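# nightly structure sweep
# worker-07 picked up a monomer target from the shared queue
# config: single-sequence mode, recycle default, output format = C-alpha cells
# input follows
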Amino acid sequence: MKAIDYKKRLTDQQAKAAYLIVLNDFEGGKQTQEEIAQEVGISRRTLLDWRRKPDFIAYQSALSDQHLEAYRSKADKMLIELVEKGYTKALDLYYTLLGRKVTKTETTEVRQVTTYLSDDEIQAELEKLTKSIEE
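# output follows
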C-alpha cells in the first residue's frame, strides 16, 4: 500500500505526527518527542501510544520509504563509482539489485544401502563370532 492509503486510516493529528517524526529522524533527531507532541497539540503520552499502533507505524514506514526514494539516484551514483573502483561487494549488490545475480546451489544425495540377512545367515555369523572368541 502507498502512504496515502495508510494516511486515510489516521486522524489529521496522527498523520501530522507521523510526518514530523519521519522528518525529524531524517534531519538527525533535532526535536524531542515532547516537542513533536506539542507541535501536533497532544501529550507526549498520546504520541507514544500512537507510535505503537500498526496503522501509525505503517504510515511512518511508507513516508520513510518515500523520503528514501528521493536519494535513489545519489545512492545509485555512489554504487556505480564503487563498482568502477573494483569493489566486489558493490558489484555483488549491483547485480543483486538488477536481479541478475544467480545463486547456484549444489545438492548431494547420499544413499545408504541396507542388507538384510536371513535367520540362517545370522545364525552362521553368530557361530563364526563365537568360534573367533573361543580361539
